[in-house]
Amino acid sequence: MLDIHKIAPQEVCGTALGLTTGLTKNTIPTSTLSVAFGHLPVGVSAKTLAHFGQLILSKKFERYDEGKIGNIKRYGTEKTPEYNVTNISSPVVLICSQNDWVSSLKDAKELSSRLRNVVETYIVPNTYWSHNNHLWGKDAQTLVFKKILDYFDKYRNNVN
């Protein structure tokens, strides 16, 4: 069987991510794309994808729609309840980027306005940075991972 992701990862995998998430070509190492696409969609269930689609269509951050009868059984109501993020009291750091088509700056601002304890909204300074760069980007270690680890250190013993 021909593994196209190993032969032309930037052309095939990079283009696929570019069309779906805003990825700019060559901002994720070719070797990383090869490994990542060799394992996709491992760990993603059909229900997760259906829920993601539901969130896009409803434009609401809500529970999974089990259908009228399923919703009544699970949630006690015909309609799916929205998640009440105002109940989140732990410190939150929002990490976002200008070129993320999945989690836009507008979405991050909306979420930030609803959360009670946002300690920082960090916009990655690279204008090309998109959704998948947060995990796989060439500079993710310095631009994202370090910030996350620094906050883990800061809040490690700060249990309320």
List keywords for this structure.
160 residues, mainly alpha, two-stranded parallel ribbon
Question: Could you walk me through the main structural features you see in this protein, from its secondary elements to its overall organization?
Answer:
The chain has 160 residues and is mostly helical. The chain contains eight helices and two strands; from the N terminus they run αααααβαβαα. It has helices at 4-7, 9-21, 30-39, 46-58, 67-75, 105-114, 133-136, 140-155, and strands spanning 92-96, 118-123. Strand 1, helix 6 (105-114) and strand 2 (118-123) form a beta-alpha-beta unit. It is globular, with a radius of gyration of 19 Å.
Structural class: mainly alpha
Helix content: 40-55%
Proportion of residues in β-strands: 5-15%
In total, the number of strands is 2
N-to-C order of helices and strands: HHHHHEHEHH
Radius of gyration: 19 Å
Side by side, the strands of the main sheet go 1-2
Give the overall silhouette. Answer: globular
Largest sheet: 2 strands, parallel
The number of helical segments is 8
